[in-house]
Amino acid sequence: MVSATRNQSATVMFILLGFSDYPDLQVPLFLVFLAIYVVTVLGNVGMIVIIRINPKLHTPMYFFLSHLSFVDFCYSSITTPKLLEILVVEDRTISFMYCIMQFSFGVTYVVTEMFMLAVMAYDRFVAICNPLLYTVTMSQKLCVLLVTISYSWGLISCVVFTYSLLILSFCGINIINNIVCEYSAILSASFSDKHLTEVILFSLSNFNTFGTLIIILTSYLFIFVTVMKMSSTTGRRKAFSTCASHLIAVTIFFGTILCLYCMPSSKSSWLIIRVSTVFYTVVIPMLNPLIYSLRNKDVKETFRKLMDMKVFSH
Question: With contact defined as beta carbons under 8 Å apart, do 74 and 110 qualify?
Answer without folding.
Answer: no
